[in-house]
Specification:
Layout (H helix, E strand, L loop, with lengths): L6 E11 L3 E6 L4 E5 L2 H5 L9 E6 L4
Antiparallel strand pairs: 1-2, 1-4, 2-3
C-alpha cells in the first residue's frame, strides 16, 4: 500500500493500554485502538490521556 493512501484524522487519547497501545476518540466520535510510531517509541516520547494526536488510518480501517 502506498503512503498516499493513508487518511489522517485528529483525535484525543482516552486511555493508555499495555504495550504502547492507546484508546483514541476521533473527531467524528469513533473510538479506535492505536499505537505510537517507531520514532516516538525510539525517543521515549510519552503520551498521556487528554493529549491531542494525529492518527493515520488506511482505507481498510
Amino acid at each position: 500500500m502506498a503512503k498516499e493512501d493513508v487518511i489522517q484524522m485528529q483525535g484525543e487519547i482516552m486511555e493508555t493500554l499495555p504495550n504502547a497501545t492507546f484508546r483514541v476518540k476521533l473527531e467524528n466520535g469513533h473510538v479506535i485502538l492505536g499505537h505510537i510510531s517507531g520514532k516516538m517509541r525510539m525517543h521515549y516520547i510519552r503520551i498521556l490521556p487528554g493529549d491531542k494526536v494525529t492518527v493515520e488510518l488506511t482505507p481498510y480501517d
